[in-house]
Amino acid sequence: MIEIGRYQAKAVTDPKELESAKNKHLETWRFTPEYFDELAKKLYNPDANCDQWDMFRLRYNWKPVITSENPNFRLFAINTEYYNGEKDQMMRPWLLENKIRDRALPNVLQFFWETGIGEKFEGRIFFNQNEIFSRFKGLSGDNEIQLKIAKDNRSLEILLNNQELEVDSIRIYPNSKRNFNDSYK
To answer: Which whole-number Å values give the CA distances from 129 to 52, 53, 108, 147, 166, in the listed order?
Structure first.
């Protein structure tokens, strides 16, 4: 993603400008003046600021590391949706060379693995926005979000640099529909 600019808004206080903007909206959207005033009150946000968007711009050096206690574990794909709107997909063989790189913070991590014939799984992690941003705040250097899948494929542990990371939701599904080149045959 390439950011081409950051919009800097200023409150319009000139009565002529305000009246002109109102008339333009009334013409364009064919609102009644009463409905326009009602919407203006309803949608007014006196505390509006860019803090959240500035937070989404932050990037850190990190990588996902997914492991299992099961010796037959094979990881096939990781799909990541980031809070800033970016999306990323890693598949084999690049996935096996997973390197730390500059990334936004993840919102949802989806991954696919197998541990044997008929043992295919899909996992999804839904991160807690406040938790992940506060934990990464001030971190520098190389970082890892580690997912440790239990041997029975029913649960997993999530860590940030070897310390437990709280998330909103962990989901693990049996997945019989996806086949990969290196799937168990």
So the answer is: 11, 13, 10, 18, 10
The pLDDT tens digits of the residues spanning 113-159 come to 999 999 999 999 999 999 999 999 989 899 999 999 999 999 999 99
- Cα separation, 131 vs 168, whole angstroms: 9
Vertex 141: Cα angle to 140 and 145 (nearest 5): 90
**Cα 68 to chain centroid, rounded:** 23
Instruction: Confirm if 124 and 140 have CB atoms less than 8 A apart.
Output: no
HSE-up (13 A, CA, CB side) for residue 154: 1
Identify whether the C-beta of residue 172 lies closer than 8 Å to the C-beta of residue 121: yes
The one-letter amino acid code at 56 reads: F
Structure tokens that stand for 23 in this block = 């008339």
The DSSP result for 72-102, as a single string, is T-EEEEEEEEETTS-EEEEETTGGGG---EE
Interhelix angle 33-43/15-29, rounded to 10 degrees, is: 110
Residues 6+ apart with CB under 8 A from 90: 77, 78, 79, 80, 98
| Model pTM score | 0.78
Residue ranges of the domains in the chain? 15-48, 54-174
The first and second tokens of residue 120, run together, are 């295919």
Query: CA Rg, the chain, in Å?
Result: 23
